Amino acid sequence: MSVLTVQNSTPLCLLQDAGRFGVRHLGVTQGGALDWVSMSWANKLLNNPLDAAVIEVTLGGLTLVAEDDCCLALAGADLGAMLDERSIAPWRSFFISKGQQLRFTQPVSGARAYLAAPGGFDALGVLGSCATVGREGLGGLDGIGKALREGDRLRYSGMSFELHALPDQRVPDLADSRPLEVVLGAQIGQFSGVSLFDAFNSDWTLDSRADRMGMRLLGPELVYQGKPMISEGIPLGAIQVPPDGQPIVLLNDRQTIGGYPRLGALTPLSLARLAQKLPGSVVRMRAVVQEVAHREQVHCLEQLRRTF
Amino acid sequence: MNLRIEVVAIDCLMVRLFDTIDEANMPWMLAASLRLREGFGAHLIDLVPSYTTLMVHYDLMALAPQQAREVIVRALQGLSPDAARGGRQHVLPVWYDLSVGPELTLLSQRSGLSMVEVIKRHSQREYQVFALGFAPGFAFMGLVEEVLAAPRIKTPRKRVAAGSVGIAERQTAAYPLESPGGWNILGRTPARLFDREIEGYSLMAPGDTVRFAVIDHAEFIRLGGDDTPLEALT
Q1: Residue range of the domain that includes B206
Q2: N or C: which end of chain A has fewer CB within 10 A?
Q3: Between chains, do B7 and A186 touch, taking CB under 8 Å as contact?
Q4: pLDDT tens-digit readout, A225-260
Q5: A250 Cβ under 8 Å from any chain B Cβ
Q6: Which residues have a Cβ under 8 Å from the Cβ of B217 and sit 6 or more positions away?
Q7: Are residues B128 and B36 in the same domain?
């Protein structure tokens, strides 16, 4: 058993995994790492299961001290990580010695970094997952939905002394400006023609009103002309349009059902890219056929499993 | 019933059975839920029921979209409502009091009924659980009598105590956990609504029926209720 002690943290430093499944009919949200691709790579670099428990650090502010010599892995955003006085770039595993301090200073590129430990961090699974959801009081180190706090001790049981780095061609480009891909939903035909044109031909700016439940996009007003909806299940990445016409992309901690009309839902790969964008970033959207998106996702998952 | 299957995401399909909220939908919804769970088996990730729809989230590594559609069509062939397999029946004890149910006044004014009569009308009816959502174990129930229907309060409260029982439009619900909320609150139940120690975690499930039983302060306390006034929380 090895330990990392938390010296400094923020409400945005959270224990996460792939999320909570099989309980959404009870009103329990999915939760889990927003950038699942980076979480998977962080784990893969240590030969962990892809969904082993990791730390999601949003924007920085986390400082850890090692109580043992070990090997950790970092993927996702470059949040200016420093191992004592040496900077640590993401997409690789690295050694940390007893007494050394690892701290995340500020965003250099991207928004969310994922830190993995050999075998995954130990945590009490609640309803099948350690994903931290404050609102529901579920997950995290103690199982009651708390973010990491000063004095917390992060334990892990695995061992790894083999360093890996992700080959350059596999490293996701966090500044990727390709349009986000949307699988169109059933209400798409009930938005005005102009709104449909605007949705897929305008720049959308990420609002500062963004959290793990959803990200609001600012741009032209989208007009829904259909009947009011009865609440129904909300998939990950659903783009709902409330009466003010400004779409909201619903993320891992979204409510399970809701009654706003939707353009469709972002693909998982687009969600991972969106999770790395800061407020003020500009994005575009484009439609993708469900079958095409499905093939791309299967290909990506197979590639993830095969690497190393 | 007019069954449709709609795309909602890369790995989710919406099974739409009805177009209006109706207590008579529930036997059909329950039967369809069971069939879909059996049909998808281990390839089902989540099945999210709501008033008129069932959202199927399946494992995309196991099923392509067209295959998932075929599973749904096969599973729902010859669907018939299963009246025998009704949900469970619950009785939720509620302490109706202004200190924990400040909108008793408003509901009384809106309806022209006395507070005692409002309490009586709310508690004498049997409600159906239509869906769980908003928060773990939060059951949307209905329908309350037309005369008690009321829109959500204008400014939602930042903190609504766990156990608070409220009305929004013609629906009623109890908050399992302390959370923000905009429902008209008329009382509080000491019942545990969502708890890891409960088999299945949530006391209520879609298709269950619920009655509210009026209890007094002493009984509320005896059952483990917390009588902190609602407005003291904010």
Answers
A1: 89-232
A2: N
A3: yes
A4: 999 899 999 999 999 999 999 999 999 999 999 999
A5: no
A6: B95, B97, B227
A7: no
